[in-house]
Inverse folding.
């Protein structure tokens, strides 16, 4: 009987792959032979993830905050990774300054992002990375106001809320072409 010669690396890979697949939860095959992983999400659970914020601010929740309030949230939740002044760190993007025309481009909230609502949406969904979606709406408004303030976009006492978002003019607002309505 012929047995293929397996290296320790290929055996390790096979064992790790098996362990990962076993640890991923339930997997089954339906009547058509399609592999089914996990379980369907309920409408109640979906509501916690359906958090779309449009560029014009539609979809923003209630709440508000200023940069002055956001500084404390930033220091507690963001500075360890992004630095005290938004200077970034190893493998963590900088948040302040930057240039889209430098080589290589240094893309930050102040130089690249076209809409403040995009910053809000990203922070609300993904930050802090160790506990995404753990910040309250007020804390998200506060920390976003602070990051915008560090970039010179809003004043320290500007009240950021769903009604004032339209007043925020991002420096690179006109740097993108919207082709979503083009036929």
């Amino acid at each position: 009987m012929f047995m293929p010669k397996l290296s320790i690396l290929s055996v390790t890979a096979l064992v790790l792959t098996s362990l990962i697949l076993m640890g991923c939860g339930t997997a089954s095959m339906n009547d058509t032979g399609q592999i089914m992983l996990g379980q369907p999400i309920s409408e109640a659970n979906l509501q916690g993830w359906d958090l779309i914020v449009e560029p014009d601010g539609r979809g923003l929740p209630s709440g508000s905050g200023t940069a002055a309030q956001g500084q404390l949230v930033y220091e507690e939740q963001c500075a360890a990774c992004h630095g005290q002044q938004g200077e970034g760190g190893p493998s963590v993007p900088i948040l302040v300054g930057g240039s889209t025309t430098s080589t290589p481009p240094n893309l930050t909230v102040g130089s690249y992002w076209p809409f403040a609502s995009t910053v809000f949406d990203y922070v609300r969904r993904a930050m802090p990375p160790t506990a995404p979606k753990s910040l309250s709406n007020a804390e998200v408004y506060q920390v976003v106001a602070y990051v915008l303030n560090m970039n010179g976009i809003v004043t320290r006492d500007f009240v950021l809320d769903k009604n004032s978002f339209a007043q925020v003019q991002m420096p690179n607002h006109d740097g993108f072409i919207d082709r979503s309505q083009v036929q």
Helices lie at 8-23, 43-47, 67-77, 79-82, 116-126, 137-150. The chain has a mean pLDDT of 84.
